[in-house]
UniProtKB/TrEMBL annotation:
Pfam families: Acetyltransf_1 (PF00583), tRNA_m1G_MT (PF01746). S-adenosyl-L-methionine binds at residues 119, 144-149. Belongs to the RNA methyltransferase TrmD family. GO terms for cellular component: cytosol. It catalyses: guanosine(37) in tRNA + S-adenosyl-L-methionine = N(1)-methylguanosine(37) in tRNA + S-adenosyl-L-homocysteine + H(+). It is an enzyme of class 2 (transferase). Homodimer. Gene3D superfamilies: 3.40.1280.10, 3.40.630.30, tRNA(m1g37)methyltransferase, domain 2 (1.10.1270.20). Keywords: Cytoplasm, Methyltransferase, S-adenosyl-L-methionine, Transferase, tRNA processing. Its EC number is 2.1.1.228. GO terms for biological process: tRNA N1-guanine methylation. Its main location: cytoplasm. This is tRNA (guanine-N(1)-)-methyltransferase.
């Protein structure tokens, strides 16, 4: 690959003779030419700029001078640096697109000649980029970040470094390009350590010294996910979901990102208390999810009757207006609501659902209940989001809200009922710390429904 850098300060680029870039030039992996823009001027003062058309502060670099310079390095006269492959014209500018690793990878893969036009002052006349783009040259106007430098020279060095290190033979261990920040994994790099093992009372994590390479790899992946979610949350929703294993998804769910069935990327999700604006979404979600939990023997008309009576728009309007009802939702942004809970909180240290089989005398975590017994009446997750960690996320939020509402009591409890035939739900509730404490029966439409009743403490870990 050939780099030609045009600048009014060509001596700035002596730094590229150092380190890996310098060695790569010696080995013939790449070549770099640095050119003084003023060599293409034709006036005694070697002028490269003029006042901006339409007025304004500063000076603008002239297109006629830049055109001569770019033409000269783009079509050399048969010397040793002739390049016949695809050419990229790269123009550093604060108004450009952010320079990303993906852009650098594409340049390294597809280009053979990169011309970097280092502007100064107010920048290069816009017609330069337009002209070469119209001629079929790939023009990249790029920025290093949301700040302004005095000129494009620093950004030119950054581009040469970022693209050059991706060329075959440049980096000794190609695997390092996969795990590094912004590499093929699409994550920021995990923390790295070396000897001494203990330094100023700080120690290398034990897992990295254990000799268990699988555990070390897992630790590194988890730290990379955590760092990316914290420092660059914009990178998580573009991760390729196919490259995530079960443990990756579990870590992401703990960080607030779920990957539903069929999704290409993780989705940012958060739990919150339901609001009036959620009424339609809640009603639709309830109508979708209740039939999945209903036992197979229930007729469709019975299920529809229950939904119409208990899960209608008017029902949820009443729940949201009732101070003794707590409705929480799992919000997936543009994906909509994907889960909800409905809890009934009694007054003082009373019992919710007394007429619906509440386990009044049940022990709570092996001790006598001291405080209210709340009923978790509804706890549903949309079908495609089950098994993603969403249920745990919603549960953690809902139970924390309930615990806060009952924080003046020593041992408040919560109970719920699930159909006796629903083994999946019973297993899930046991994992959440619930214990079976009884049974109850009630009507769904005109059919009898048999529930297993579970209970646990609100403050149980």
């Amino acid at each position: 690959m050939r780099f030609d850098i045009i600048s009014v300060f060509p001596e700035f680029f002596r730094v590229l003779d150092l380190s890996l870039i310098g060695k790569a030039q010696e080995r013939g992996i790449l070549s770099i030419g640095c050119h003084d823009l003023r060599d293409w001027t034709d006036d005694p003062h070697r002028t490269v700029d003029d006042t901006p058309a339409g007025g304004g502060a500063g000076m603008v670099m002239r297109p006629d001078v830049w055109g001569k310079a770019i033409d000269a390095v783009m079509e050399p006269d048969g010397g040793e640096n002739v390049v016949v492959g695809p050419t990229v014209l790269a123009i550093p500018t604060p108004s450009g697109y952010p320079l990303t690793q993906r852009t650098c990878e594409r340049i390294a893969r597809e280009a053979e000649h990169v011309i970097v036009a280092c502007g100064r002052y107010e920048g290069i006349d816009a017609r330069v980029a337009e002209h070469y783009g119209a001629k079929g040259v790939r023009v990249i106007e790029y920025s290093l970040g949301d700040y302004v430098l005095n000129g494009g020279e620093v950004a030119a060095v950054a581009l040469v470094e970022a693209v050059g290190r991706l060329l075959p033979g440049m980096v000794g261990n190609p695997e390092s390009l996969v795990e590094e920040s912004h590499g093929a994994a699409g994550l920021l790099e995990y923390p790295v350590y070396t000897r001494p093992v203990s330094w100023r009372d700080a120690h290398i994590p034990e897992v990295l010294l254990s000799g268990d390479h699988g555990a070390a790899a897992r630790w590194r992946k988890d730290r990379a996910l955590e760092k990316t979610a914290t420092r660059r949350p914009d990178m998580i929703p573009v991760i390729d979901a196919e490259g995530l294993d079960k443990k990756d998804r579990a870590t992401l769910s703990r960080l607030g990102y779920l990957t539903p069935r069929g999704a290409e990327h993780p989705v940012k999700v958060h739990a919150r208390v339901a609001e009036h604006k959620d009424l339609c979404g809640l009603t639709d979600l309830a109508a979708r999810t209740f039939p999945d939990a209903a036992p197979a023997y229930l007729r469709r008309e019975s299920v529809e009757s229950f939904i119409g009576k208990n899960l209608s728009l008017e029902s949820f309007r009443g729940y949201l207006a009732d101070e003794h009802c707590q409705v929480c939702v799992l919000d997936a942004g543009q994906e909509g609501l994907i889960g909800y809970t409905l809890a009934i909180v009694p007054e003082a240290d009373g019992v919710a659902g007394l007429d619906e089989g509440a386990p009044v005398d049940a022990l709570i975590d092996g001790a006598e209940r001291r405080g209210p017994l709340t009923e978790l009446s509804k706890f549903y997750i949309d079908r495609d989001w089950r098994g993603t960690g969403g249920a745990q996320m919603l549960w953690d939020y809902a139970i924390a809200e309930l615990a806060q509402a009952c924080d003046q009591w020593d041992n408040p409890g919560v109970f719920l009922g699930t159909n006796a035939a629903n083994r999946r739900a019973r297993h899930a509730y046991r994992k959440l710390g619930f214990e079976e404490v009884g049974e109850r029966r009630f009507m769904v439409g005109e059919q009898d429904n048999h529930d297993i009743v579970f209970a646990r403490g609100l403050r149980m870990p």
